[in-house]
What we know:
CATH superfamily of the largest domain: P-loop containing nucleotide triphosphate hydrolases
Number of helices: 12
Radius of gyration: 22 Å
CATH class of the largest domain: Alpha Beta
Strand order of the largest sheet: 8-9-5-10-4-11-12-15
Amino acid sequence: MTQISQQALETAIKEYRDPYLNKDLYELGAVKNLTADDQGKVTLVVELPYPSKGIAGGLKQIVTNALEFVDGVDSAEVHVGQRIHSYKVSKDLPAVPGVKNIIAVSSGKGGVGKSTTAVNLALALHAEGARVGILDADIYGPSIGMMLGVPEGKRPDVRENKYFVPMAAHGLQANSMAFVTTDKTPMVWRGPMVSGAVMQLLQQTLWDELDYLIIDMPPGTGDIQLTLAQKVPVTGAVIVTTPQDIALLDGKKGIEMFRKVDIPVLGVVENMSVHICSSCGHEEPLFGHGGGERIAEEYDTTLLGQLPLHMTIREQTDSGAPSVVAEPDSEVARRYRDIARRVGAGLSTRERNLGGTISSIAVAEH
Length: 366
């Protein structure tokens, strides 16, 4: 039997380049085990550093084919998994128990689809194999509960008269001010009360081993947002905008705010980039064109993705089953999952927080 060359196996594995980090599997440190037995069977274990369930099948197929072309290889078995680490935050703030990474989803102004994006991003990260929670910090207009289909008036369980047990919805762990107040009670609070309430919700919720906690921030760049950005150990921020000039202007303010408090901006999501007619499918850029790309270029950040203005996105979100769970195979869900992988991959290039929570491993077999 032909002796299998270790170098030939490694060369075959290096043919695959990660689509989000543009590195081969060795450069990523993703090859965890490679063995070849006397019968010509090769076994490879790969562990990607970000939520990547959606591309695991393609990776497995490409690398299996490459390995089976190597002289002496009769068969190849490739196992693909992922390990998500805790990454350092810029400020010396205590970590939130049970949470590895916090991602703030923010917008310079209201009405750009920030909460819709936050919910679908959280669901997409979960669909990609991560443990995800979502905190509704939009005190004046909390909508996450409705979007996730949590029945009105349902209250979280309380432990030791002090801690909230997060609500379970579509695989997410969720908490919101809306769960502890009624929608008939408007929040007539000043800034310090709002930021205090959010910090209490964040720290007194029993988050269970989350890879990512998505925080749906209040819209705008005022005192509340600044206080939260300074007090919460945020790993990175995602800015939501529309292509409209006025929204872009406010989106830039959002980026500037996070830069002032040393929170890395992971990228920009351009919402409502084109309107798709529900009758004929015609696409038209109602709010302008290319705005997200211009911001990303100007601020040296990433355009994470562009989402259409489509009636079904609103209908699904209003009905408590956002696009990623309502139509997991749709183009919109595919775009959100692509954004989720980009966010996770971007974070994976940061310095690790070695004192953080233990990294979790998930194995995706296809």
